[in-house]
Input
Amino acid sequence: MANKRGNLRKYQSFSNTEDDVDLEALVNDMNSSFESLYSTCSSVQSESVPLLQHNGQVHVHRNHHRSAPMPPHTHTSTSELQHSPTSPKQRLRRSQPMHILAVRRLQEEEQQLRTSSLPAIPNPFPELSGSPVLSPGSLPPCQPSGTYIINIFSEDGMGKVVEIPADMTARDLCQLLVYKSHCVDDNSWALVEHHPLLGLERCLEDHELVVQVQASMTSEGRFLFRKNYAKYEFFRNPLNFFPEHMVAWCQETNGAIPPSQLLQNFLNSSSCPEIQGFLYVKEMGRKSWKKLYVFLRRSGLYFSTKGTSKEPRHLQLLADLEDSNVFTVTTGKKLHSAPTDYEFCIKPNKRTELKELRMLCTEDEQSRTSWMTAFRLFKYGIVLYQNYKIPQQRKTLSHFSTPVRSVSENSLVAMDFSGRIGRVIDNPLEAQSAAMEEGYAWRKRSQRMNILGSPSPLHPCVLSSVIHRTQLWFHGRITREESHRMIHQQGQVDGLFLLRDSQSNPKAFVLTLCHHQKIKHFQILPCEEDGQIFFSLDDGSTKFTDLIQLVEFYQLNRGVLPCKLKHPCTLVAL
Output
């Protein structure tokens, strides 16, 4: 019986020893994992550390590599180990047993920290966000701030450096340039994004931030400051843009669409208008063009793989409207071998190469204008209409308080200096008669000086031949092609005009006029009567002493022209 009890005790102690060895190895692994995560107290070492209490017994793990050797003839009991004084760091690090689940959780957190792309950043203001650490996803988006340097170029190639704030829009920058260049603010100036190597250009929308647009431009891109009368022409004459066969609606419409309803359908995001028609599309990476049936919707630009079918399985996406902008191509036939001269392009809002552009081409100028206008309407919607209405509602500038001077302001008054003291003429009829009398007196004085042979620069013949050169609509000796280019750049709206010297007759002039998106030329011939030189457009039926009177007359009367002169084609020097 005693032998059996002894064997049983040996078996129990042997089994307990095996269990203790396994648990000790396991806890050692846990301690090593814990030390790899929190090694802040590595300088403090101990000879023996209590690891686990099992059945009231304390197991001691001796670290022979880190602890100093114990002096001889020393003995440490279990109670002394339990009540031995330890430092706070040791108590925090070694006093409590670590559970397996807690160690696994710590290992997972360590792995997540190692695999994260950005390290954890201490939050300097934890009371605002409630978190002591800023994770990468919680970081706020980078917003532009401060001031930036922008280079603006005019049509003659001269540049101007302007320092603007980060939140300045294209409209505010145009007003700033108008003020600094002493131009007339008629709400027709625009900022143009120009890429000479790609042959692309577009007018920035009034609400676009100039700094953000500059960030997406390449090094060769630049900003141009010029007039654009066609920027909001759609809101003035909407029915001149989209023919009936070009617009498709989800709902059935009877007869012609009123202009107000047409505007509402295009500006309303819930409506589903669709622009459709044939376009020449350049294949990506090739020089060949294909004629495809194309659909422009709010979701993007599509083409049909089977004729004019609109079934979803036959439609393929050409370009997205959200992350793209539409550009006019100025060198289409030369650079891209386009089938016609009416090419436009859809360019992503990033620094792209030539092969990444989506080149399109139409049959005539009206179709190109309609497609490009529809692209802007579908992308911006009601924002475009708000940009069109803002100049009529806002007369003050947002970034500087100095008002812009305009000729339309009543800053000039009629004065009478016939007496000893000058007086202001308040009566409009009296002011008009005084102006006419002054004009007659000037002509008599000029004739008297001509008879006397005075070489004065006020000679009528000399004055009438040079006075027009001071006007903004006169451009001197430019070619026919250059006049076409200027008309194209400034909008091709009805009544856009300029005057230039005639290339065929050195004594004559040419009036270049745009009507129905077609450019026409009218020769102004000099005619002599009673020894005085006059200018006429209709073979002498209506004669004018100088070109200024001729332009002022046809601004009020159409006469032999297809339309009145409305918008002078002007260039500004920055």
